[in-house]
Specification:
nucleotide-binding, transferase, UDP-N-acetylmuramoyl-L-alanine:D-glutamate ligase, 37% helix, 10 helices, globular, alpha/beta, 24% strand, 11-stranded mixed β-sheet, lactose metabolism, 4-stranded mixed β-sheet
Length: 308
């Protein structure tokens, strides 16, 4: 069993349009409503690869019910903590000029009793899991150290924890030393206190983070690929070129792919190629975290590995 945690899930409304012009009326060509949030996206990918998943997080109102119904429909277990507020709605606008515009709501206010209830659900939800994946931001009034506490709670029960967050939530939790962390370049700069201009700078910063006791550091470099570091190897995977339709969920696809690779016992080079291939394939589809398997296999073969 794999447990995913999405503290701030959302209904993603994806619009397509010829272009988006600020300050004017914009006509939308199509709209698609999708259950989203980083951990929900991870859950979607893991279910496509056939792994049992239990999804946790905060849900509220009609939007929350929409998300839970979807998660159940793909065969994942649900142990969501319901709150009085309404789960947020995010808007992604994909324009034909290649720009992606995202409008992200903050999410509901979480009361202390609701946070306490979530920690109880978390304790139950990880009992039979060997992997725990913590993804994304958190709603209002959730302490910045929430992931720090969750990581320690899971590690004390012998679980491997994957962390994919940002901002204060990442900064406050990194010293709990998850099994894997996936910062982007900007986040790596903040964590390491270094300015990153070249690959050598990124490697040095990633080594610094890994030196705290983190087994795997995967640095997201967008369309350029991934930098991967553990205590024995340094590798860069150059991503194949694809015609990107929607890049939302590419990072979440990396996280899910890492979990699949971990479950399958892949070697590190195979793991890295798999993560980049799945992420690149995600970018070729309109709906986030829907992976075209044939395309994935083709892209994995095109990933180039450079060792340092």
């Amino acid at each position: 069993m794999i447990t995913t945690v999405t503290l701030n899930p959302a209904e993603d409304k994806t619009f397509t349009a010829a272009r988006l012009i600020l300050g004017q009326v914009n006509r939308i060509d199509s709209v698609k409503n999708i259950a989203g949030g980083k951990g929900i996206n991870v859950t979607k990918v893991l279910r496509q690869y056939g792994y049992p998943v239990r999804a946790l997080g905060f849900l509220g109102g009609y939007t929350g019910k929409f998300i839970e119904d979807y998660v159940k429909s793909i065969g994942a277990e649900c142990l969501f903590t319901y709150v009085d507020g309404e789960t947020r709605v995010n808007i992604n606008i994909l324009s034909q000029d290649g720009y992606v515009t995202e409008l992200l709501e903050p999410g509901p206010d979480i009361r202390e009793k609701e946070l306490d209830a979530f920690f109880e659900d978390f304790n139950k939800g990880i009992a039979d899991s060997d992997l725990v994946i913590l993804s994304g931001s958190a709603p209002e009034h959730v302490p910045a150290a929430v992931y720090y506490d969750l990581i320690l709670q899971a590690k004390n029960k012998g679980k491997k924890v994957i962390l994919d967050s940002s901002g204060i939530y990442l900064k406050e939790s990194i010293n709990a030393c998850p099994y894997m962390v996936k910062p982007n370049i900007r986040e790596l700069e903040v964590l390491s206190g270094r300015r990153i201009k070249r690959m050598e700078d990124a490697i040095g910063a990633a080594l610094q983070i890994g030196g705290r006791g983190i087994n795997h550091v995967m640095v997201s470099m967008g369309a350029k690929g991934l930098l991967y570091i553990n205590d024995r190897e340094i590798m860069y995977a150059k991503a194949p070129e694809v015609k990107a339709v929607n890049t939302v969920g590419c990072g979440d696809s990396v996280v899910a792919a890492f979990a699949v690779a971990e479950k399958q016992g892949m070697g590190n080079e195979e793991l890295l190629k798999f993560c980049v291939g799945v992420s690149a394939a995600n970018a070729t589809t309109l709906e986030s975290a829907v992976i075209p398997m044939d395309k994935t296999e083709e892209l994995i073969e095109q990933v180039k590995i450079i060792r340092y």
